[in-house]
Amino acid sequence: MTVSTELNHEDMERTLASIDIPPCPAILAQVLSEAQKDTPDINVLATILASDVGMSAYAIKLANSALFRGSGKVTTVPKAVARLGTRNIICTVVAVSLRNNVIPGVAQEVLERFWDRAGQIALAASLTARFLRGIPPDDAYTYALFHDAGIPVMMHRFPGYTTTLREAETSGKSLILLEDERYHCHHAVVGSLMAKNWGLTRLLADGIRHHHDPTLYEHSKPLLTDGTLGLIASTHIAEQLVNTMNAESDPEGTNLFQQATIYLGLSEEDIQELTELCTEALSG
Question: What is the model's pTM?
Answer without folding.
Answer: 0.86
